Each structure stands twice: as structure tokens, then as C-alpha cells.
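Record format v2
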Amino acid sequence: MAWQRAEAVRRVLTGLLVCCWTATMAAAPHEHTPPVVLAPGYEELEFVPPVAGTYQLPPMGDAADGPVLDTLGKAGRLHDYLGEKATVLSFIFTTCNDVNGCPLATYVMSGVQAAVLEEASLADSVRLVSFSFDPEKDTPEALGRYGDQFRSQGFDWQFLTTASEDDLRPILDAYDQWVIRDYDREGNYLGTMSHVLRVYLIDADRQIRNIYSTSFLHADTVINDLRSLLLQ
Amino acid sequence: MIRKLIGIVTALIAVAAPLAWADETCMSPYMAKIVGQEDYVYIWTLGMEGVGDGEDKLVTVDVNPESESFGEVVHSLSVGGRNEAHHSGLTDDRRYLWASGLDTSKIFIFDIHTDPAQPRIHREIDDFVAKTGGIVGPHTNYALPGRMLITGLSNNRDHGGRTGMAEYTNDGDFITSVWMPTDDNLQGAVKSGNYADGYGYDARALPRRNVLVTSSFTGWNNYMMNLGKMMADPEAMKRFGNTVVIWDLHARTPKKVLDVPGAPLELRCAWGSRSNYCFTTTALTSKIWLIHEDEAGEWHATAVADIGDASKIPLPVDISISADDNHLWVNTWNDGKVRLFDISNPHAPEQVFEKRIGEQINMVSQSWDGERVYFTSSLLANWDKTGSGAGDDGDVQYFKLFHWDGESLTPEFSLDFVEMGLGSPHQMRFGAHALYGQPATKMDHDGMAAR
């Protein structure tokens, strides 16, 4: 198990080095280029989280549904992958070049996977879902290759995409996951997207119970919340 | 231009880097940041009877020097009636501006991303008191991941200072509320001194330490009372907050109540990755307080500096910490001055600069690089000095921009909000087209529309 986690981390960090370089090159030479500071999710948690089950995770609303494709191209509904288990849902795209964006989400979810694999009481109660918001590049095949790098064999970690922007947009809107495509002044798509990282904790009744973002997302925190949900 | 756009948008997604990226220096650490030139300042403005339409309004001022309308009001959106407009805050994705009214407890949610130059009303929350179980006077609108934290100032039972906090989804749906710890119900918190008053005011988070810090002011009975009448009432003057509370941020449970006597108002936490402290100032005792964690993980409150001559009641109001944690701007409402303190040693701040900005100076906001410093007047409707021109500057209600070069403040422009029929300007928040993938200046607007 430990090896699997270490390998997943290595893969993510290899990608991060490329991202850092890209970010540096994007800045104008005369501008101050601040060093990339890794998000807290890459480090050891600096505090002891509250004891699982001693705090509330009040419902924040229904987790939305919509048409999706799995990595085999099979059409289904997002709700097919929510409910019955506590689910951690992240919105990503596989070509994301921000060290503290999608790679962080995948890194943290790898950490959650590793922790669940080591905690028998969670094994059948937790699901991970990585949902792409780039249907153009993240085809089922591409997403399948991406997922194979991180998913432990047999683990309930689903990688989903959509058939089109038309299918995707209402889902993003419903989750308040804001994404913009980056264009130059001539209107040419730069191939990148800007977004605020959001990862959702969804209970077995498809209610959103927490939302994590870059400054807050950490595997230990997510695991603690999963334990809390399952104790309720 | 494109490089600048990339630089700003990168900041949108790189929300984790606490020191190097900073922000407009006092925003939530969860929030997208403007690290370049801001295009607009949104000013939540209190309606004044006989001035314009007399209604509260969100005023948008163009502050991009490359724009043809630099220094001009480009938009004003009235919300209907007066609500005691006071504080405002942005959602973590910066698409919406929440602005609240201390009197009516209404919250107005403005869409500022569809057209940053022309905010529009997205939603109005008019059942805050009922939903929250009696919290009155929504004050700080503070971004948490995917949600907003709203601090209260009062309650609907006695309209005193006991109050709580509420959480809403970014779209404006109520989630939950929690009351401040009191002697009657500490909720598991440790009372470390003489007070557990249950009062509220501001809130700031230190996610890295799992800490939420709250401060305390006064209730509806006082903040809606005429200032002179209140100050002449010894009983009313007893009803001010004397506490700062340390919370478990994740669990939203109070951990420790600290004595900070004299109405601790704005809270500003350091950005440094090893800086486990925040500052506040006390309105009635004119001191800077350091709220700090020791090596054992215990939190303390220590008075670390005087602000002016406390016997003259300078009345410190808004403060602003620099992105590098080295300086703190402190406004004092009564003498119209801004003071700059060197806080590189947070335990021993030293005043290094002082300038009179204007009558009843209140709020201060600085750009992330600290070069642009904005000020507004107006404290509360019933506390403000009355009559335009009453001050020796002749501009009682104003919005001003200064350039800070590290040694002096140079005026850029000043807008008289009374003369312009707008009202009393209070809190300022920044906007930028680049946050939404849009070029900044009007010159580029056509290109944007064409794509």
C-alpha cells in the first residue's frame, strides 16, 4: 500500500515540475515572478484535526445530476456514481498546468485512497470521482489512461467525462464550479483554463456536506470528514 | 497586455501561496487574488437623506489609470431604501459581492463577473434574522470554500451585543449558524480572563493553523443610537465588546475567549507561512493588540502599541496589513489621520508615518503591491458628523486614492460623495476584468466582445 501511495505521489510531482516551469515561462521577463509555493495539501497537516464525529457537517444542498461518460465511453448519469457511499468528487482536467490546481486534487485523492485502503472500516463506504471539465481533450480513452496512473486495482475511484460542452455546462453551473477558458486578445484559445479548485464531500443521500479548495484541501482533513460522515 | 492578463489570471487559480502572492492584503486566504492593477473599486455606500435618491447603493469607480474614465464613477446601483450599509465581501471565486445592512439585516448579493463595470443584483436575502435564529446586524461577509461566513453584531431578543455567525452557500442559501460563547454557555471554550460577553464583529481565518478569530463591537441599540447621546449614557458605554475568540475553524467550535477590552474591531492576520498571529485595534482604548500563538499552541492577546493619544479618543477604525507583513495602516476616525506602523516585530510595532487624510476617515484598502491606498469616510449613519463641508477639509464624505512610495502618500484623485449625490461611502472591494478572462481597459472591450 505504502508503495502504491509513494508511486502515485511521484507521478503527480513529476507533473508538477513541468507545471512550475510552464508558470515561470508565462511571466513577462520584466515582471517579478514569485516562487511557486506548494499548497498545504502537499505538506504534513500542521494541526490535529477535530475528533471525527464531534463536529457537524451541515448539508449544503443537493449534489446535482447530469449525463456523463465513463472511461469506456459508456453513457450514464452522474447520480449513478453518487449515493450509497460517501463520495469525494473533484472537477479536474488532465492537462491542467497549475501546481495547486487539479494536480493537487488528484494528489490528495491518491492520499485518501491510500488511507482508505489501510482502514478496513472505510473500505466499502467511500468512493472517489474525478470529473473532467475538458470534454474536448479528456476523451474517455484519455481519461482512462490518466486514471490508470492513480487508481489502485479494484478501488472505487471513478473517472468521468462528458460528451460535449452542452452536457458539461449545466453540471458545472449546478456545482458552482466556475471555469473560464483563456483566450488571447485576438480570441484564440490558449489551451488553458482558469478555475478555483473545488472538491466536494457528498454523503450517501447525495447531499453536499463540505467543499474544499486549495488552501484547505488535505487528505487528512478529508479522511477525518469521511469518518465523521460515516459515524453519523 | 496579454502577459499582464496571464499574470492576473494565474493568481486566480494560485490561491494557496500565502506570502509571495498575497492579495489586496486583507481578503480571505481562500479567495482568488488580484495581484496586478485593479480596474474597479466597488464602494458599498450608505444612503443619506436628501442626497441623491437617499438609498444605499453600490458605487463602481474606475481606478485603472489606462482607462479613459479613470477616477470617475462609472456605475451606481441603488438597492431601495436605507439599510445601514456597512461591510461587504467577495465570494471565494470573486464572482459575487455580498453587501449587508446593519439595521434591516438584509444582504444584497451583487453579480460582479458578468460585467465588472456594471454590477447587477443577483439575490437579496431578507430573512437573515429568521433563518439564523435571531442574529441581527450582518457585518463581515467572509469567503470560506464554496460558502460565505457572516458575522452578526446583535440579536432580536434585546438588540444588545450578544450575537452569532451564520454560513450561507455562495448562491445565498442558508446552511447553519452558531452563537458566540458567553458566561452562560461557553460551548466548551476556555474563558481565559474576565470576559465572555458573546459579542461579535469581524472574523478572519488562519487555515494552516485551523484557527478562526473573531472580535467584538456593540449591539443594535448602540450602533443605531446618536453618537453624542450614546457617549453621554454611561450604561450604553458599558455595552461594548471586550473579547476576541479563538475558534476551531474546521469544527466551528469556540476554543478560547481572550480579554481584549475596549471594542476590538477589524482583524488582520499575517500572511507569512510561519506567522501565527493577527492584529486588531481597540476603538475605545486606542491600542494595537497582537493575537498570537505560542510555541505550545496556546493563543494569547497582548497590547503591543498605542495609537495616538488615547485621552483624545482618536477612535481607530479600519486597519490594513501589507502583503509582506511588515506594515499596518491604521485609520483614526476622530482626527482624520492615517498612521503607518512598522510591524516587522509584531510584538513591538513602531509608528513610522502619519498624515491627515480628511474628516472622519474610516476605511482603508491597499493594492497587493501596497502602492495604491484607498480611503473612504463614514462610520455609521448616526455617528457620522453632519453636514457637508463641516470639516476643515470641506469633504465629509469622500473616496480618495493615494500613491504610496514607501515614504509619502501622494494624492491621485478625490471624489466628494455628497456633491455627487451618492451618500456615505463605506467599505471598498476591488474588481478586475482579468479575473473573468476579460481584457482590462475599455480600449480592449471591443476585442473582447468580438471573440
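Chain A has one domain: 2-25+59-231.
Confidence is low (pLDDT under 50) at residues 1-33 of chain A.
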